[in-house]
From TrEMBL:
Keywords: Heme, Iron, Membrane, Metal-binding, Monooxygenase, Oxidoreductase, Transmembrane, Transmembrane helix. This is Cytochrome P450. Belongs to the cytochrome P450 family. It is a single-pass membrane protein.
């Protein structure tokens, strides 16, 4: 009998179901997968970045890897123990502390340069005009870059989509943020602020007339409550639970973030990874419950969708035409998750720095209070009055300039394109350090590091020498959808505080801004409150 040795060895033409052939097939497949994985890793981490780097360097661009201060990157982003323990004077020159890595690179290589985050190549673009050009995105060819797996654990939604999906979501969400709709949410804002004020008043009642308070935590609770009430109306208690879970999730994400350049890291069965997935499941379950309950009420009982963000979003979705032009329940869940992530911490950061800065500059605190009392007296602030607060608006803008909650923004080139005379291949990640643009003396003047709300006396467009380069809420088509919401909330809270209290920084306060996704006060924000 003749045996086809080659066919048998390879399992071709032989009995493929025999154990040895099967294991050979499995072995071959595993080898192919391994080869593919090695190729992908080499392509992503080595070949592609090097190709991009060569193309950019050939045009005269310089750069180096991020040089962090030596030491751990463990629990707070970029600062090591030594840098962390050093208090900084209460000045507003915070870039060396919050973005030393970017400052070093830009100092050495100029406002447009190459850098590396692990194996990932990024372009740092700190040139104000170019940042504006990129955010304006006239060509429509810039994309966001989001780690979709990590994003899913936080929130995907509007902020991470591109192209048609983004346009559809933005169109559906826009009506919920119109000023008229925000006006109807004002009672929710003032209810939450009243709760905060009452808790401060009761602390003061048991004291000798002044009391130290850490506003950082209080403002996070306030803005979390505002999002819960304005998003979910009567279901806001479930909203509160979501907000607690989201807060824990944010901390865990930060822990995971430092390992994210390891391929497949989120699949490792670490304690942190497992808990993040568990939290995400619980949040999604709660949100699905709230959404389905609301949809049932709208369909079966003919109830109106309500004037909260969820109701307005569902209503707008319903009116959006065919199902292809509508969001699915999963999409709505992601958008609700995003409201917390995009809207809670950013606004609490703004309020915190505002009180800290007004503690450093009591003359502006007095001016703001005078204005608030002249518009509202001791009455509850109303929508029209909040729109007339000029000094308060100037103060909030100046705080957003010096302490932008989102320190850097990012984009990706979706195809080859020219920016500032340089040709960028497709797929280049662009890091836009907003904080450096906001602290650039060439556009803001020599007094750039001083707190001078008067630079906004004639609005944003006149605050800088040339075109506006004020980007706390981004710019262009992807400008923050919640900016009016946030400004209204901040004005309401600040007005109610100024009506009742005066405050100064506590001696126990250490000025230590640092970035953990947004710009936090590292050691809290302790102020001393006195009743007026
Ligand atoms: C002081 C408070 C806030 C600040 C500083 C802020 C900042 C920003 C910035 C800088 C962007 C643009 C990101 C980019 O271009 O890459 C953005 C987008 C966004 N923000 Fe805000 N935000 C604030 C409050 C809010 C609130 C209260 C909400 C919702 C309740 C919100 C929801 C969003 C959403 C959904 C986007 C994505 C928009 C899009 O991509 O089309 N933000 N925000």
């Amino acid at each position: 009998m003749e045996v086809d040795v080659a066919a048998t060895t390879l399992g071709v033409g032989g009995d493929v179901s025999s154990p040895s052939s099967l294991s050979l097939l499995c072995g071959l497949s595993a080898l192919l997968v391994l080869l593919w994985a090695v190729f992908r890793a080499a392509e992503t981490c080595w070949l592609r970045p090097r190709r991009l780097s060569r193309a950019l360097r050939a045009q005269g661009l310089g750069g180096t890897a991020y040089r962090f201060p030596a030491g751990d990157l463990a629990d707070n982003g970029w600062l090591n123990e030594e840098a962390r323990s050093k208090p900084m004077p209460p000045c507003h020159d915070i870039v060396p502390r919050v973005a030393p890595h970017l400052l070093n690179i830009v100092k050495e290589h100029g406002n447009v340069c190459i850098t590396w985050f692990g194996p990932v190549l990024r372009m740092v673009i700190a040139e104000p005009k170019l940042v504006r050009e990129i955010l304006s995105d006239k060509s429509g060819h810039f994309e966001k870059f989001t780690n979709k797996r990590l994003g899913k654990l936080i929130a995907l939604g509007l902020a991470s989509y591109d192209g048609e999906k983004w346009a559809m979501h933005r169109r559906i969400l826009n009506p919920a943020f119109h000023l008229e709709k925000l006006k109807s949410m004002l009672p929710a804002f003032s209810t939450c602020c009243t709760e905060l004020i009452s808790s401060w008043e009761s602390k003061l009642a048991g004291s000798d007339g002044s009391h130290e308070i850490d506003i950082w935590e209080d403002f996070q609770n306030l803005t979390g409550d505002v999002i819960s009430r304005t998003s979910f109306g009567s279901s806001f208690m479930e909203g509160r639970r979501i907000f607690q879970l989201q807060a824990e999730q944010a901390e865990r994400i930060i822990k995971a973030f430092q390992y994210m350049y390891i391929p497949g890291y989120l699949f490792f069965p670490t304690e942190n990874n497992k808990r993040m997935k568990q939290i995400n499941r619980e949040i999604e379950g709660l949100l699905r419950g709230i959404i389905e309950k609301r949809e049932r009420a709208m369909e079966n009982d003919g109830l109106s969708s309500g004037n909260d963000l969820l109701g307005l979003m569902l209503q707008s979705n319903k009116e959006s035409g065919t199902s292809r032009m509508r969001m699915s329940t999963e999409d709505v869940i992601e958008e609700c998750k995003l409201f917390y992530f995009a809207g809670m911490e950013t606004t609490s950061v703004l309020l915190t720095w505002t009180l800290v800065v007004l503690g450093m500059h009591p003359e502006w605190q007095d001016r703001a209070r005078e204005e608030v009392l002249s518009v509202f007296g001791k009455d509850k602030p109303n929508f029209d009055g909040l729109g007339r607060l000029k000094t308060v608006t100037m103060i909030l803008y100046e705080v957003l300039r010096l302490y932008p909650p989102a320190v850097t923004l990012n984009r990706k080139t979706s195809r080859q394109m020219q920016i500032g005379g340089i040709t960028y291949p497709a797929g280049v990640l662009l890091e836009l350090p907003i904080i450096m643009v906001h602290h650039n003396p060439d556009v803001w003047g020599k007094d750039v590091l001083e707190f001078k709300p008067e630079r906004f006396a004639e609005g944003i467009s006149k605050a800088t020498k040339d075109q506006p380069v004020f980007f706390p809420f981004g710019w262009g088509p992807r400008i923050c959808i919640g900016q009016n919401f946030a400004m209204l909330e901040a004005k309401m809270a600040l007005s109610m505080i100024l009506q009742r209290f005066e405050f100064q920084l506590s001696p126990s306060y250490t000025h230590a801004p640092y970035t953990v996704i947004t710009l936090h006060p590292q050691h809290g924000a302790q102020i001393i409150l006195k009743s007026l």
